[in-house]
């Protein structure tokens, strides 16, 4: 398995506070990875760096076979390269229908001229319908997404991510605020997605992480504390001290 | 699932039909081509109002749909007026000069003619030389091209600098105010090359046209109505498809659009430049009807009025912008034209010429507070459009995001 994303020696300081401290992390082509850690461990900042929202003070972020540095690219260019991100709070375009949301996310040319003259093809529409089915929103295609329930918005956002066909999916607390059944459905979607691409899930909920049954990275104070299977890291004394013991 | 563009937006057909009906009505009632119920000066007022409606459509596109509160679009409107004014003034002066020189015994040379035109145009600012910016003034075609190119280029450069630095919200609004103020102050100077505070005048006289103003005013009304119809159609098409989805996304949640892989800056720049060009065309049709343009036209307050019209009409729906601009500018000319009757209160008489601005300001505040849908809300009573119940939450985190009452269920 080749490496898709390699973060090495990255540090970020905000007003003297070291949010990320010499962090190194790598993930393969089709891999599911859970990232856990207490509040302030740098999980969200880590995602900000990979997606280009935050520029690190030092370190490298290398992407793909051609080993491109993501640090030189804008957020939009990084997204076009194949990094998709789901935010902690569901963020969909509330004034627009589920269908418009999904159509906007479909992997298609992103330039303004191409978008201005864009006409959905039959296969585009089929894709949208297919995605809606996958996320359980078939009946809601024509509804404004602002009317959806919290859980449905979470799924719509996951659906938009899948529509982007990213090679790396960064998912921030996907199960927050979901019922047990909804969580199960979310687990299925993530496991399915991880068969063909890399998925990084940031999560607080240990039960959810256990269900994902994947390699776990524990962050603490902006650096990797431990890495391995869930059982391996939960038996690590450092991890117990800073995280689980509390 | 797939319906045609018009079928998805029935309001377009209604709007175009009403516009055609209005134009036909004015034609029938005009002095130039009809029974003469409407005076020529009022035809000009109506024609100018159509131009203001067109720039309001542009404003709605940039503010109501993209969420950028530009307070500088009258700079582009004024520049469009200046560009067409340069040709009108040059050509008319040239004809007068050629006519008067033809009386002399020795035929005038080309340079003598140009010098005489320069003397006529720039004598008022103590100069006779043609500045470089008048280089194309002798060609109608090139000057018409400049109507779109000059404001478009200004918008492109200004927008590129502002958007790539990620200036947003109130800071961008202030920046656009600064732009239009700087332009106005520059044009006020006598050596700016556009006759300083005298501006360009006599624009209502089309060179080489012997028809009376009764007819000319109708030509411009037709042209303005056509431009408004075309501009409305263009704007409706732009906001209807995926491009519309993207710019509405930028309005409500810019960061999310970025993470979808769309270059937010490129989209903002596109809309900013496009709306600047629409504003310029509106201005190029407006000032020949007004007859005169001077730098006071592009003072910062003009662009603020524009935002007020769109707010009163209802942001985020194109017909709202048109209704707001038409209503407020017509009311404004009624109140400030001295036609509104004074109200004697015994100790004090309310003169509307003085009090109109207070009334406008008050209604703006009241609309913002109590009827955020604006005049468009009245249409909702008829079309049964309802706002969603979101318990007061906006439709996105950004400053320009649609508010609960402005949205459609």
From TrEMBL, chain A:
<dbReference type="InterPro" id="IPR003439">
    <property type="entry name" value="ABC_transporter-like_ATP-bd"/>
</dbReference>
<dbReference type="GO" id="GO:0005886">
    <property type="term" value="C:plasma membrane"/>
</dbReference>
<feature type="domain" description="ABC transporter">
    <location>
        <begin position="5"/>
        <end position="246"/>
    </location>
</feature>
<dbReference type="InterPro" id="IPR017781">
    <property type="entry name" value="ABC_transptr_urea_ATP-bd_UrtD"/>
</dbReference>
<dbReference type="Pfam" id="PF00005">
    <property type="entry name" value="ABC_tran"/>
</dbReference>
<dbReference type="InterPro" id="IPR027417">
    <property type="entry name" value="P-loop_NTPase"/>
</dbReference>
<protein>
    <submittedName>
        <fullName>Urea transport system ATP-binding protein</fullName>
    </submittedName>
</protein>
<dbReference type="GO" id="GO:0016887">
    <property type="term" value="F:ATP hydrolysis activity"/>
</dbReference>
<keyword id="KW-0813">Transport</keyword>
<keyword id="KW-0067">ATP-binding</keyword>
<dbReference type="GO" id="GO:0005524">
    <property type="term" value="F:ATP binding"/>
</dbReference>
<dbReference type="InterPro" id="IPR051120">
    <property type="entry name" value="ABC_AA/LPS_Transport"/>
</dbReference>
<keyword id="KW-0547">Nucleotide-binding</keyword>
Automatic annotation (TrEMBL), chain B:
<keyword id="KW-1133">Transmembrane helix</keyword>
<dbReference type="GO" id="GO:0005886">
    <property type="term" value="C:plasma membrane"/>
</dbReference>
<dbReference type="GO" id="GO:0015658">
    <property type="term" value="F:branched-chain amino acid transmembrane transporter activity"/>
</dbReference>
<dbReference type="InterPro" id="IPR001851">
    <property type="entry name" value="ABC_transp_permease"/>
</dbReference>
<feature type="transmembrane region" description="Helical">
    <location>
        <begin position="355"/>
        <end position="372"/>
    </location>
</feature>
<feature type="transmembrane region" description="Helical">
    <location>
        <begin position="266"/>
        <end position="286"/>
    </location>
</feature>
<dbReference type="InterPro" id="IPR043428">
    <property type="entry name" value="LivM-like"/>
</dbReference>
<feature type="transmembrane region" description="Helical">
    <location>
        <begin position="219"/>
        <end position="239"/>
    </location>
</feature>
<keyword id="KW-0812">Transmembrane</keyword>
<dbReference type="InterPro" id="IPR017778">
    <property type="entry name" value="ABC_transptr_urea_perm_UrtC"/>
</dbReference>
<feature type="transmembrane region" description="Helical">
    <location>
        <begin position="292"/>
        <end position="311"/>
    </location>
</feature>
<feature type="transmembrane region" description="Helical">
    <location>
        <begin position="318"/>
        <end position="335"/>
    </location>
</feature>
<protein>
    <submittedName>
        <fullName>Amino acid/amide ABC transporter membrane protein 2 (HAAT family)</fullName>
    </submittedName>
</protein>
<keyword id="KW-1003">Cell membrane</keyword>
<feature type="transmembrane region" description="Helical">
    <location>
        <begin position="170"/>
        <end position="188"/>
    </location>
</feature>
<keyword id="KW-0472">Membrane</keyword>
<feature type="transmembrane region" description="Helical">
    <location>
        <begin position="140"/>
        <end position="163"/>
    </location>
</feature>
<dbReference type="Pfam" id="PF02653">
    <property type="entry name" value="BPD_transp_2"/>
</dbReference>
<feature type="region of interest" description="Disordered">
    <location>
        <begin position="390"/>
        <end position="409"/>
    </location>
</feature>
<feature type="transmembrane region" description="Helical">
    <location>
        <begin position="71"/>
        <end position="90"/>
    </location>
</feature>
